[in-house]
Amino acid sequence: MLSKRNFLSAVAALACTALNAGRAAAQAYPNRPVKIVIPFGPGGPTEFILRLIADRLTTALGQAFIIENRPGGAGGTVGAKSVAVAEPDGYTLLFSSPGPLVTAAAIYKNLDYDPIRSFAPIAMVIYAPQMLAVHPSMPVNSLPELVAYAKANPGKVAFGSSGHGTQPHLLGEMLKVMAGVDIVHVPYRGAGRSVTDVVAGQVQMIFETTAILLPHIESGKLRALAVAAEARSPLLPGVPTTAENGYPELTASFWSGVLAPAGTPAAIVAKLNGAINEILKSKEAQDGLARLSAEARIGSPQDFAAFIASETPRWAAIANETGVKVD
Description:
The protein is α/β, with parallel strands linked by helices. Helix content is about 45%, strand content about 20%.
């Protein structure tokens, strides 16, 4: 009995020591610069909000938060893997969209990381609807007209995306299946390049977020056909939803959030979550997101983890339905 009592006391002491060590680590964190990896090239739809967050974190926590674009692989998987295998100490973070965390898992059999188990979600940052736009040279003004044109011109309409397996890619594949059209996928390394080519007329159509397409729509360089959401965008009230055009399942919302490698101390995750949520509550962040028809998603690390878990089966079903798979 004495031995058992001593053993339990030792376990309790070790637990207290670990807890105190975690608290001490969080109090000291950060004591050197922190790197935030974006697994795509520059010019993505939410990079502006990450730069705002990085600047504010630098001020609030007293160390530089440095953004590093690391494109490569398919759907942002190279940058995501670099964070998955990093030391779980809070000094290498990931700012990820659905591609590396949800859609890549649905189409790739052999990822070098586990999208769920390799990361510790910290905070969901942004939530914005996807939309469909075309180059103004296209003789269409609505989604039904686009479908009719594509049927009359099989293989002659190309759509760009930010990479194989990303939301914009899968939305294009969904349209192919639902409408029975032959349109050609052209993948890029990031949203910036895909949008540049559709604006230049190198590709004819694109699914991307309202956030990144809106300036080009307002300038007349692109024509909006539909919002891939349940409701119209208040910034483009004249643009119907995909559901209004007869495609209620052709919906998706782009989101991005901050994650750390799995095993990062919970106290550090909580500290970053609190700091990011405070930044998202600021008027500057709220106004910036509103101008892009996007919204902040303030919540706990557990909320973000639950959201990722809920998105995974939906996109797995879409990948299965469209037949998008890569060995």
